[in-house]
Specification:
Blueprint (H helix, E strand, L loop, with lengths): L2 H13 L2 H8 L3 H15 L4 E4 L2 E4 L1 H28 L5 E6 L1 H18 L4 E6 L5 H6 L5 E7 L8 E13 L9 E3 L8 E4 L3 H10 L11 E3 L2 H9 L4 E5 L11 E7 L3 E7 L8 H14 L5
Parallel strand pairs: 3-4, 3-5, 7-11, 8-9, 8-10
Antiparallel strand pairs: 1-2, 5-12, 6-10, 6-11, 6-12
Helix pairs in contact: 1-2, 1-4, 2-3, 5-9
Length: 296
């Protein structure tokens, strides 16, 4: 499908009729019907069946929908980029971060950057830890923020902060007052397991092999933010990197260092062979302010 065909397809999917799609796109109804027919002929399968005067999506159309919406979003972003170029405005910073950082750290850093650069555009997205470097390398983003084991640091990343894995427990828990917590002190039945990043899971499993042998009744999630909120509800303990807690309301929970120390690094990634934007430096400075003096 070309760009117009994607727009027609999505309009019909959303509105349910060629007439409504034509009105939304500012064209004639026969043009919509002809476009759909041409696309179906070229693809070799039907996208819509006519049912009671409406166009009902086929199974194949439902499969195509998600990818078409992704393409629409990318094209919209590309349009905004072209608009910046057309107006000789390079004032946009695109930042990708892990889900935990995107939900807590990025908004706080963005608020600081907005004060310093009020006319600057910001794109703040959530991406998976292991996918961020490649997306920055492809120049989808100007800056990526991820958390990795300190042992995995390389020349491809810049270290923003070094920290460690911590144990988050309900404020009234027996371990809440412990400044340091060892695996042997934790009841495995209480652990809320976070399985987002294989490297961090391996880091924990290296000192606590039992981490990989979860009970069937265990609570598990792929998001650190969910795990911390489950702890707040008194459903157990969780082990997370300390950067995940930046910007979180820690009322009702206690945070203690996990022993032996499992070192992690908050790292930044920028596109290769390109002079860093001044805004990148502004954003990293803002991250530093948000983190304060808590992490190394």
């Amino acid at each position: 499908m070309d760009r117009r065909e994607v727009a027609v397809f999505l309009a019909v999917m959303r509105l349910g009729s060629a007439t409504a799609a034509a009105a939304a796109l500012g064209c004639a109804q026969p043009s919509i019907s002809k476009t759909i027919a041409l696309v179906e002929r070229r693809l070799g399968f039907r996208l819509f069946d006519r049912v009671g005067g409406r166009l009902s999506p086929t199974f194949e159309a439902e499969l195509v929908l998600e990818e078409a919406m992704r393409i629409e979003d990318e094209l919209s972003r590309f349009d905004r980029y072209l608009d910046n170029v057309r107006g000789l405005r390079t004032g946009q910073l695109r930042v990708a971060a892990t889900p935990a950082l995107a939900l807590s750290l990025l908004p706080l850093a963005a608020a600081i950057v907005r004060k310093d650069l009020p006319g600057f555009g910001l794109v703040l997205d959530m991406q998976l830890n292991h996918e961020i470097p490649a997306m920055v390398e492809r120049r989808q983003y100007d800056l990526g923020l991820a958390v990795i084991p300190t042992a995995d640091e390389s020349a491809a990343v810049d270290v923003v902060r070094r920290g460690r894995i911590v144990c988050v427990s309900p404020a009234g828990h027996a371990l809440a007052s412990s400044p340091a917590i060892r695996w042997e002190q934790i009841d495995p039945a209480e652990i809320i397991y976070v399985t987002t990043d294989a490297r961090l899971v391996a880091l924990l499993a290296a000192v606590a092999p039992e981490f990989l042998r979860r009970l069937r009744s265990a609570t598990e999630t792929n998001r650190y933010t969910i795990a911390v909120n489950l702890v707040r509800q008194g459903l157990g303990l969780t082990l997370v990197d300390e950067f995940t807690l930046a910007g979180h309301d820690l009322e009702g929970v206690a945070v203690g260092a996990f022993e032996p120390a499992l070192n992690v690094s908050l790292v930044s990634v920028t596109p290769p062979s390109r002079k860093a934007k001044t805004a990148v430096r502004h954003f990293l400075d803002a991250v530093d302010v948000v983190l304060g003096s808590g992490a190394g």
